[in-house]
Structures are given as C-alpha cells and as structure tokens.
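One-letter codes give the sequence; each number marks local geometry. A record appears below:


***
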Amino acid sequence: MENNQLYSEIIKLKYNSLSKTEKKVADFILDTGYQVSEMALSELSGTVGVSDPSVVRFTKALGFKGYSDFKSHVLRDWGKESSSSDTKKFVDINFSPNDTLDSIPEKIIRNTIQGLEDTLKIFNTTSYQEAVKAILQAQRIEVFGVGTSGSIALDFVSKLIRIGLNARFFTDNHLEQLSCVSLSKNDVAIAISHSGSTIDVVDTLQIAKEAGAKTIALTNYKASHISKYADIELLTGDHETTFYSETMISRTSLLSIVDMLYMGILISDYENFTSRLHKVNILVEKKNF
C-alpha cells in the first residue's frame, strides 16, 4: 500500500481481489465517502449488513492494520481535501430532472474532469507499458466492443491503421468471434467494455485467450467478468452518471486510454510512424476540395 494514496484509490485498485462481502463494505464506503470516519466498527457493519470481522478483513485486505488504522487514513484524506483551495470540486455534479439548461454545461465539464482524474489516480503504468509493448509486437491486432464501446474500438483501429499496424474491427460480433478463433500467441486481442460484463465482449475475449493471443481489457475498476480472460487490464475509475449510462463519462475515460496507447505506440518508433502518418495526411488532403 502506497501511503500517499487516497483511501478511495486503494479500494479501487484492490476491488477485484475482494470477496463478495468485502465488496459490499467497499461499495458503501465509496458511496458515502468520509462519513465512515465518524462511524464505529459495529455501526458500519450494522449499516452494511455484514459482521464486524468482515469489516476488519476488508481493511486488512487493503493493507491496513485494522479498522482504526483505516479510519485514520480516511481522516487524513479528508484533511487533504478540506484544505484544498479548489472549492469548485464540491459543486454538485449529479444530474436530476430539476436541472436547468444553464447548469448542464458546467456539470458535464466537471463530471468529465472528475472521471478523467479518477482514472489517472488508479492508472497502472506497468500495465500500460506492457500493453504498448504487446501491441507493437503483435502480428495481428483485434479490437472489439459493442454499443458505445464499439465506436471506441473503431476509433482505436482507425488510429492503428493510420500508422500501418495490422488492426481489425468487425461491427458483427459473430464475425469477430470467428476471427478470434484463428488468433495465435503472436497476436493481440483488445476488448473495450465499460461494464466488463457484456456477454458478447467477454465471450469474445475468452475465445481469443483460448486461441493463445495476448489479451487486453479496457474496462472499469469493478469489472470482474472480463478480468478473468485479460492478461493486461487498463482500468477507468469513474462512476457513471445517472442518465444514459455508459455513454457519458465512461466513454471519455475509455477514449483517453485509447489515446494513451496510441501515443505510447507512436513515440516508440517516432520517425517511422510519423513518416507513415505524413503519407496518410497527404492522401486525406487529396480527398478535400
């Protein structure tokens, strides 16, 4: 456990390794925030509906000595946030039917910023470097997702094709699965899913892994289904908004990870890839009047 990490970051990084009961405690604490620092052990366990030992096991699973140690860390984080000069972050960014048109732009921007910052806080640099290396070394790159995640997958493939990499995207999930059957250890499969529980995407990543390909998942920190078949995970930390789930903050966070991967690939062989991009840009310019 990094002592300088916020308690919320630690929970999100450890979330998928927690038991079902421990996740109940984690969900409550992430939802209520610093209120837990004012709760006795029995009060917290009673509110969540778990035993006192379950709460203690939860704190130890995070790397703390016990509940008191965890509460001290929460209080420390509360002090950090309270002393911050950025008071705008306390603006209510949740949406409701009572919102006015004037309030929407600021809430969208602040929600987006919060989602991106949340993602950066739990971003695993080692996993990122491994993903960039795997994509660079792959003979074939399959990128897939459905719905909104499908449009993000297509964006990623478009970027990779521009710099000359052998990347593919199918709008038909059945075709994507047929394609993944023929993958090998020399190939990479990249699944994009905010929920991490979309059956078609999870099944496709499983097929790719069983075929021997290196598998990468771009998903949120709570995603447990897709993580079973991912060799590398790149996680978003944002909470989705109450309206139009999976198309607002999650989309922006996933796109930011796509851009991180793309730029990481680009600078790994800058002269070569920018030369290819130059040729593409000339081609595109000729398409304009």
About this structure: The domain at 7-82 is CATH 1.10.10.10 (Arc Repressor Mutant, subunit A). The first helix runs from residue 7 to 14.
